[in-house]
Amino acid sequence: MKKLMIISAFLLGTVATVFAQSEKYYGAMGANLAGMGNLKTVQDHVDLAAKFERIGDAEKTQWLPYYYAALLNSWAAFAAPNTEKDALGNKAKELVNKAQAIQNSSELYAVKYMASTAQMMVDPMTRWQVYGQEAQKALDEGFALDAKNPRLHYMQGQSLFNTPEAFGGGKAKAKASFEKAVALYNEEKPASPIAPTWGKEQAASMLEKCNK
Question: Does pLDDT of 95 surpass 60?
Answer without folding.
Answer: yes
